[in-house]
Design goal:
Layout: H1 12-35, E1 47-51, E2 59-64, E3 67-72, E4 86-90, E5 96-100, E6 106-108
Antiparallel strand pairs: 1-2, 2-3, 4-5, 5-6
């Protein structure tokens, strides 16, 4: 009968059980944070992440389904063939107006 009336403060197992409970809560919180990461392999969303935008060390990470691709910038200007097609202006209401070189105007709604 003495074991039933023993103080909990004197029992070392009660503090060990409390530590296990704390660690279980921490592990559960970390698993939830991992599952909500947009680049997680558990999510099927398509995600594009741009790191250091506009800088020479810019990186683009693209996730489609379970496939993740990473593109790194070399910091050099791109080159190619082409010509100027016109000018685009952003209006006060958020829409864009494209003015081609030949003078035709088209309004492109913003997404």
């Amino acid at each position: 009968m003495r074991l039933l009336n023993e103080d909990e403060e004197l029992n070392p197992m009660s503090s060990a059980v409390n530590l296990v409970d704390v660690f279980l809560v921490i592990i559960a919180a970390l698993l939830i944070a991992l599952a909500q990461n947009p680049l997680s392999v558990f999510s099927s969303d398509d995600v594009t992440v741009i790191k250091n935008a506009g800088k020479p060390n810019m990186e683009v990470i693209v996730k489609k389904g379970k496939e993740i691709k990473e593109y790194k910038s070399t910091g050099e200007m791109g080159s190619g063939e082409g010509s100027r097609a016109g000018v685009a202006y952003k209006m006060a209401d958020g829409s864009f107006v494209y003015v081609p070189e030949d003078g035709d105007t088209k309004t492109i709604p913003e997404k």
